[in-house]
Amino acid sequence: MPLSIEPAPHASCFSAHDRPTWELYSTCVHCGLCLQQCPTYRVLGTEMESPRGRIYQVMLADEGRLPIGDAFVTHIDRCLGCLACQTACPSGVPYGHIVERARAQIEQRYHRPWLASWVRHFVYAGLLGDYKKLARWARRLRWYQHSWLARAVRASGLLKLFGLAPMEALAPQVSQAFSFEDFGAMFPARGERRGRVALLAGCVGSVAFDPLNRATIRVLQANGLEVIMPEGQGCCGALHAHAGRREEARTLARNNIRAFEQWSCDAIVTNAAGCGSAMKDYVDLLAGSSEDSETAASAQEFVKKVRDVTEYLAELGVRPPAHPLALRATYQDPCHLAHAQRIRSAPRELLRAAGVELVEMQHPDYCCGSAGVYNVVEVELAGQILEEKMDDVAATSVNLLVTANTGCMLQLRSGVARRGLPMQVKHVIEVLDEAY
Amino acid sequence: MLFASSIVRQLRKIAGRDAVLSAREDLMLYEYDGGVQRALPQAVVFPQTTEQVARIVKLAGKEGVPIVPRGAGTGLSGGAIARKGGIILGFSRMNKILEVDVGNQRAIVQPGVVNLDLSHAVAKHGLYFAPDPSSQKACTIGGNVAENSGGPHTLAYGVTVNHVTGLEVVLPDGRVVQFGGKPAESPGYDLTGFFVGSEGTLGIATAITVKLMRLPESVATLLAIFDSIDAAAQTVVALTSEGVTAAALELLDGWTLRTVEEAMHAGYPMDSGAVLLIELEGMREAVDDQKAAVIAVCNRLAREVRVAKDESERQRLWAGRKNAFGAVGRISPSYYVQDGVIPRTRVPDTLRRIEEIAKKYSLTIGNIFHAGDGNLHPLILFDSRDPAQMERTLAAGKEILAYCISVGGSITGEHGVGMEKSEILPLMFTPSDLDVMQRLHDVFNPACLLNPQKIFPMARSCRETNAAAHPAAGLAFTQGGPA
Ligand SMILES: Cc1cc2nc3c(=O)[nH]c(=O)nc-3n(C[C@H](O)[C@H](O)[C@H](O)COP(=O)(O)OP(=O)(O)OC[C@H]3O[C@@H](n4cnc5c(N)ncnc54)[C@H](O)[C@@H]3O)c2cc1C
Ligand code: SF4
Ligand code: SF4
Predict the structure, then answer these.
(1) Ligand 1 residue neighbourhood (C-beta within 6 Å)
(2) More confident site: A172 or A276
(3) Domain end: A253, A287, A315, which one?
(4) String of DSSP letters for A218-279
(5) How many CB atoms are located within 10 Å of the residue A373 CB?
(6) B332-420 has CATH 3.40.50.720 classification
(7) What's the structural domain count of chain A?
(8) What is the pLDDT of residues A388-409, one digit of tens each?
(9) pTM score, whole prediction
(10) For residues B331 and A360, what is the distance between their CA atoms, to the nearest angstrom?
C-alpha cells in the first residue's frame, strides 16, 4: 500500500528498463507478518533489513524520496533472496521479482567501488558465463587446494589476518573430473524404460559437484530413465538474475532454451534448487525484453518441463532400493526448493524410500545463510545466520544432515566443521544412490 | 527535522553505536506500522536492558523530546507512530524469555518476544500463551500488552489482560516500578490491569509476567456452511443463547471467504454465502458432547456442517482465517480494517447495515469477525491513489462505528485507539469520563512525552506541548483514519 508522507513529489529514481513497478510492490500492505521469517531481520532487528522495509525502500525510491545510494544498496544487497518472506506473506507479494528488479536498477544506476565492480564482472561475466574459463580457473583452484601453498598459507595465518579464512573454508573442493566432459552423452535407462530426462549439470555443479551429478545420473537410470546431458548447455543464470544482471541472465537463459530444445525429453531436471527456481522463472525473465517475443513461446515450453530431481522422482514414484539404509537423518529445506518452488515433501519422501528415519529439526526451512554467493560477500552476517541454523541442527543429535542444494551443502559443511559436530552433509540424491 | 548530534551521541553512549538510527534514509523506515498513519521519528534506538530504557527515558525527559515504544509495528491504529517526532524505542533486540516457571504456569519475558515464539518455546511442557491475535507470528508481547490484544480464542480465554499478572515498567521520569507479580491477584490497586491496554502512554513495559495455559486434551474444529449471511448471523445468536461455550466462533461473509479461498485453499466452499469457523476445546467427553450440540444448532439453518478430520485439515481451516486480511491485500491495493464491537444479539442487523453503507458509498466491504464476542472487522477496500475513494472509505468507516455505538457497542475491540480513533473517542464517553482518564494519564505521564497525541482527541491531549508539534506530523494522516 503505497501511502507515504509526501505524495510522490519527486521524479522516480528508477529507469524504465527492468523496473520494480507499482503493480508489483503495491501488493504489500505492510502488515509485518513476514518480519520474523526473515533471517536478516531476526539477526539485525531493523526494518531496513526486513522484507517489509525493503519493499518500502523500493517504493520510496520509485517516489523519488530515497536515492539509489549507499543506504539503499546496502540493505538490498543484504537480502539473501531466500524468499522465506514470500512463503510467509498472506498477500502474495512477489518479493523475488521486486528485489531482482531493484538490483537491476542498482546495476544501472549505482557505481560500486572499482574493486567490487571488477570482481563482480570477473565472476558473473567471466567465470560463470564461459565454461572454458571456469574449467581453467577450477583447475587452478584444485591445484591450490592440494598444494603446499595452501598448507603454508593456512599455517601462516595470513588468511585470518585479511579476514579471508571463512571464505577459504567455504570454497568448494574442486572435483577430479568435470561434468563438461560428458556433455552430449546419453545414459541408458536400467530395467523397464519409464522416460527420458535431460540433466542440467550446472556451472559450479560441473566443477565442484561432479560426483553428485554422476550420482544423479545413476539414480535416474536406476529408476528406468534415460538421461541426456545436452551439449551447449551452460550456467542457468540464477546468480546473475539475483545480482540484478538481468541481461547476462537473459543471454544464458536463451542459450539453455536453445540447447535443451534440440532434444525431446519428458523433463529437464536439476539437482540444484537454485538452478531449478531460476529456470522456472525464465518466462518472467524474458518477458522484459523485446528481442524475446520469439523466445517467449519456447521459454514457456522449457519452463513447463523444468523439475527439481527430487520433485520429478517423487512424482514418478521411486523403485524400492536394493540396500535400504537404516539411518537417522535430519533434512534442511533449501530456500530455493521450499520457498521458491514450494517443494517440501518430495525430498522427504525420497529419504524415507531410502530407508532413512527422519528426525525433524526446529525450523527446517530457515535459511542457512548460503544463498548463492552471499556467504562470500556478507561473511559475518551469513555466519550469524548459520549459527542460528546449527543450533537447530545440533539439537537433533543425528549424524547425517541432508539437503537438496549444492550451495547449502557447502555452507552446512562449514557449519558442521566450525562446531566440530560428528556429522556428514549429503544431498538427498547421494543418500538415495547409496541405497540402490 | 533531525536531532542535534549531541542527543544522538548520548543515545549511542547508552545503547551502543549500532543500536541507534538517525539518518533520514533509516528513519523513513519507521514512519509506518501495520495501519495507514505516517509520521517520521527523529531517532530510533534498540535498547537491550531495562537500565538502558530508563537512561534513554531520562535523557528524553531532560531534552524534552517524545518517546514512542514500538514492538513489531503490526499495530493497526498508528500506536507505534512518532506522531510528534522524537525517539522510537524499538524492542526487536529485547526479545529474551527470561524465565519459564512450569510448576506455576508462568513465564517472564522481555517485551520484544514474539507471541508465537513464546508458545513454541513452552510447547514441550504442554503449555502455551493463550492470546492469539491473527498477527501472532510477528507481533510482540509488549505490543499485545499495550493494545490488550485478543484473537479468535478470546471468546473462551479472554484478552491479554486476563493473561498478564505482573509487569516491570519504566515510568516517563525514568523510575523502574513493579506492578503485580506471579500470583494471580495482588493487594491494592490492580495497576497491572490498568496498564494493559494503555497503548504506550503510561509507561514502558520492560518485563512481562504472563500466564501459561495447559494445551487442551481435545480440540474439535467445525466449519458450518450457509447460503446466506443472515442465516450465519442468526446461528451465532442461537449458539450463544443455547449456552454453547465455543473456544472460538468466527464468521466470514461470502465475498471474504471466496477471496480467502482463492489465496489460501483453506477448504471454504466458493458458492456459500457465509461460513462459521467454530472451535471446541477441553476434556475429550465434554468436547464430544458440545460437538453434537453445535451441529444440532447449526443444522437448523446451515447447508452443511463439516468437522476437521485431522490436525492438517484443522490447520488449513485456520490458515484461511488467520491470513484473511492478507488475502484481501492480494486483490486490492489498500484496505482499511475497521474494529468495532456490538452485542452478539445485534449481529444480523449490523451486517445488514454494513451492506447498506457499502452501497451508499459504492465501496466493497468484506466482513470477517470474532462473532462469538461481537467484535467486527469490516475490511473496506480502496485505492490510495484515488483521494475521493479514500474520503469515502473514511466516511464509511466512521458510519459503521457510529452504528456500533448506537446499538450499545464500542469503537474498538482489540486494535486500540491510537491516533486513528482519538478524535472519535468523545462519541463513547462523557466529558467527565474523559476527565477521569485524562487525570490518570497525567499522573503517569504529566509532561506528555510518552507516546504523545494518542488515545485522547487533539483538543484534549497534552495542551501544553501541542504548540511544538513535529512538522512531519502535520503531513501525516493525523485526524484519525486514512485521510
Ligand atoms: C494482519 C494483522 C492481523 C491482526 N490481527 C489482530 C487480532 O486478531 N487481534 C488483535 O488484537 N490485534 C490484531 N492486529 C493488530 C496488532 O497486531 C496488535 O495490536 C499487536 O498486539 C501489536 O503488536 P506489535 O508488537 O506489532 O506492536 P506495535 O504495533 O509495534 O505497537 C503497538 C502499541 O504498543 C506500544 N508498545 C509496544 N511495545 C511496548 C512496550 N514494551 N511498552 C509499552 N508500550 C509498547 C506501542 O507504542 C504502540 O502504541 C493485527 C494486525 C495485523 C497487521
Ligand atoms: S507479509 Fe507481505 S504484505 Fe505483509 S509486510 Fe510482508 S511482504 Fe508486505
Ligand atoms: S528474501 Fe529472505 S532475506 Fe530477503 S527479505 Fe525475504 S526473507 Fe528476508
Answers:
(1) A 31-33; B 33-34, 68-76, 79-80, 91, 111, 133-135, 139-140, 142-144, 146-147, 149-151, 199-200, 204-205, 325, 414-415, 451
(2) A276
(3) A315
(4) HHHHHTTEEEE--TT-----HHHHHTT-HHHHHHHHHHHHHHHHTS--SEEEES-HHHHHHH
(5) 18
(6) no
(7) 4
(8) 999 999 999 899 999 999 889 9
(9) 0.90
(10) 36
Cell of B67: 518517546
Provide the ipTM: 0.90
Q: Answer for the pair B355, B372: CB distance below 8 angstroms, yes or no.
A: no
In chain B, whose CA is at the least distance from the CA of A34?
B138
Helix (H) or strand (E) holding A312: helix A309-316
Q: Which of A88, A109, A130 is the last residue of a domain?
A: A109
CA distance A41 to A34: 10
Report the pLDDT value the prediction gives residue B332, as an integer from 0 to 100: 82
CATH number at residue A367: 3.40.50
Assign residue A194 the CATH number of its domain: 1.20.1050
Give the residue carrying C-alpha cell 443472515: B230
B472 interaction partners in chain A (CB closer than 8 Å): 5
C-alpha cell at A402: 541432508
Residues facing residue A427 across a β-bridge: A403
CATH domain B1-93+450-483 topology: 3.30.43
> Of B431, B439, B397, B388, which Cα lies nearest the Cα of B415?
B397
Contact B33 A89 (CB under 8 A): no
Cell of residue B386, nine digits: 484515488
Are B214 and B104 in contact by the 8 Å Cβ rule? The answer is: no
Residues 323-342 of B with CB under 8 A from A: 323-327, 329-330, 333-335
Hey, which residues 296-325 in chain B have their CB within 8 Å of chain A?
Answer: 322-325
Residue A394 within a domain: yes
| Residue B40 in contact with partner chain A when CB distance is under 8 A | yes
**Among B30, B32, B74, B149, the residue to mutate for chain A (most A Cβ within 10 A):** B32
Question: Is B257 part of the contact surface with chain A (CB cutoff 8 Å)?
Answer: no
What's the grid cell of residue B309?
478430520
pLDDT for B468:
39
B5-60 residue pLDDT tens: 889 999 999 999 999 999 999 999 999 999 888 999 999 999 999 999 999 999 99
What residues of B are in contact with residue A35 (Cβ under 8 Å)? 72, 138
Q: Is A21 helix (H, G, I), strand (E, B) or coil?
A: coil
**Mutation pick for ligand 3 pocket among A56, A83, A87, A385 (CB with most ligand atoms within 8 Å):** A83
Looking at per-residue pLDDT, the higher value among B113 and B420 belongs to: B113
B253-263 confidence digits (pLDDT tens): 999 999 999 98
State pLDDT tens for residues B197-233: 999 999 999 999 999 999 999 999 999 999 999 999 9
Q: Which residues pair with B44 in a beta bridge?
A: B21, B88
What is the SS3 string spanning B369-421?
EEHHHCEEEEEEEECCCCHHHHHHHHHHHHHHHHHHHHCCCECCCCCCCCCCC
Q: Is A6 inside any structural domain?
A: no
A10 within domain boundaries: no
Quick one: DSSP state of residue B450? B
- B23–A91: do the CB atoms touch at under 8 Å? no
- Considering the domain boundaries, does residue A17 fall inside one? no
Residue A147 is part of which domain span? 114-170
Residue B482 has pLDDT above 50, yes or no: no
| CATH architecture of the domain with residue range B218-310+317-326 | 2-Layer Sandwich (3.30)
Calculate the alpha carbon distances from B379 to B259, B336, B339, B400 in Å.
12, 6, 9, 11
**Do A103 and A119 fall into the same domain?**
no
**Where do the structural domains in chain B lie, given as residue ranges?**
1-93+450-483, 97-214, 218-310+317-326, 332-420
Question: What pLDDT, on the 0 to 100 scale, is given for residue B186?
Answer: 83
- Domain match, A142 and A163 both: yes
Helix axes B324-331, B254-264, angle to 10 degrees: 90
